[in-house]
Amino acid sequence: MFEELDKFSNKVASQIIEKFPQWEQHAGVDEYKGEKAFLVKIPSPSSESDNSLRIDTYRDEVTVTFDAYHAHFDEFEDPDDADALSLVNQIISDEMIVVSYWRDEQWCGSLPVDKNELPSTNEEYPYANLIKIRSWSGRYNNEITCTPKN
């Protein structure tokens, strides 16, 4: 499929295009510091968000990124272990929401959170004065101002 990619990246690319053929138009080869990797960057369907879902194969691992959160996996599909496909499905179904904590423009941390367990305080990151909540569809998007506990 992508001749210039190694075996691992080609395998992941094939799996992603097989599961999500509509994403092929957003797929390609990316290069960073001489390393070529498969990259697919899918724009969010939310008009409120310029976030995209990004999946790449740098360093022989699958990295899934959405908003201020990312996770690394050994495989895209692995029925016996946590895999990138499971996370992707949770993101695009709005089951998993990204919550990031900020102190002004400084990022404090991010967590994937079940849609039914969204925070309302900065208890997880007391230094933060802003909580950003981002979902794939935009349905759960919110920003919560809070008082930092230094």
Features:
single chain; 150 residues; mainly beta; 2 domains; five-stranded antiparallel beta sheet; four-stranded antiparallel beta sheet; 9 strands; 15% helix; elongated
Write the layout of secondary structure elements.
Blueprint: H1 7-19, E1 27-32, E2 35-43, E3 52-56, E4 62-66, E5 69-73, H2 84-92, E6 96-103, E7 106-114, E8 130-134, E9 142-145
Antiparallel strand pairs: 1-2, 2-3, 3-4, 4-5, 6-7, 6-8, 8-9
Structure write-up:
- With 150 residues, the chain is mainly beta.
- The chain has 2 domains: 7-92, no CATH class; 96-145, no CATH class.
- Helix content is 15%, strand content 37%.
- It is built from 2 helices and 9 strands.
- The chain has helices at 7-19, 84-92, and strands at 27-32, 35-43, 52-56, 62-66, 69-73, 96-103, 106-114, 130-134, 142-145.
- The strands form 2 sheets. A 5-stranded antiparallel β-sheet has the order 1-2-3-4-5, with helices on one face. It has a 4-stranded antiparallel β-sheet with strand order 7-6-8-9.
- The longest helix has 13 residues, at 7-19.
- The protein starts with 6 loop residues before the first helix and ends in a 5-residue tail after the last strand.
